[in-house]
């Protein structure tokens, strides 16, 4: 399968290009060339002026399309989530399991492994375990009964069962042990500080000792104050720590997103933290307008898509479209060490692209080389 996408505004990650085409061969980007230089015999898809960017990457999402991974961690649920995300312009994601029972935590990594084996070119990058080694003081909507101290034997079991499926783990630095950190780092798991009441000193030490990210900046973490900078201050002060942020105007004010981006630059990336309605299990959510809440009414997740988060950054935060897209593509790819394969429109990169219009509404994706464009746009000529 070899074809070209034309008549589009290309956002490569480094430049905005007009009158250029993306040549796709199999599941990879072969070239980005001036339209006038396209081979005469290549199949062409005219995108009618749509924007083309790298496929969006969500490193923290729990469910979609009325299914919730944290309640039903199965291959079928992951397939349904992937299909829903493709309609939203998101091509890659980490399925996230919050603090839960040992059984469900095991099932999450097993489902991640099984899905990746069945769909080696799928969009699932792995599993993000958000807990269970977190702070009781900053548990947020997490269930207190499942919070526990780090257990190296349990971690070894997850790593064994997942065989590489466990890609990120959110843990409170103040409860982390050197043995747990070393084991996870050796296995290539990204350690993210979250649901934490750590002091600035504790968080700074963590960022120097194996933690490379922070989970949903501002939410469920110690705040920046004049006498105690907390985890937020440690994130700002770090030279290496990435942080995810939920740009919905609910989890944190848009001004906080803007200030953080000014201070952090390329270390700040977008997530949705999106959930789905669920009337069963430990995590029961209901849709409350622009957010989801749990049975107690506690803020428990967003109603965002990644493209909506990008749009919010452009329209409400004041970040350029180019940078907002990088926050949803290149920067999360870097967090997982995948920046040589994902996050750019460039030769040799995976042919996973997001297609959207001037209003930043999704019109389809290229998913592992396959063009999935909503009608009536798109016309093919041999």
List the main descriptive attributes of the protein structure presented here:
2 domains, globular, Urease, subunit C, domain 1, TIM Barrel, six-stranded mixed β-sheet, single chain, 27% helix, 382 residues, 27% strand, 24 strands, alpha/beta, eight-stranded parallel β-sheet, 10 helices
Strand and helix layout:
Elements: E1 2-6, E2 9-11, E3 16-17, E4 20-25, E5 28-34, E6 43-46, E7 51-54, E8 56-61, E9 63-64, E10 67-68, H1 75-88, E11 90-98, H2 102-118, E12 124-130, H3 152-162, E13 166-171, H4 178-186, E14 190-193, H5 200-207, E15 211-214, H6 230-237, E16 242-245, H7 254-264, E17 268-270, E18 286-287, E19 291-293, E20 299-302, H8 306-317, H9 321-327, H10 330-335, E21 353-356, E22 362-367, E23 370-373, E24 379-381
Parallel strand pairs: 1-6, 2-7, 8-11, 11-12, 12-13, 13-14, 14-15, 15-16, 16-17
Antiparallel strand pairs: 1-4, 2-3, 4-5, 6-24, 7-21, 9-10, 18-19, 19-20, 21-22, 22-23
Helix pairs in contact: 2-3, 3-4, 5-6, 7-8, 8-9
Binding site for Zn(2+): 130, 195, 216
Binding site for substrate: 141, 219-220, 227, 251, 299-301
GO biological process, one term: N-acetylglucosamine catabolic process
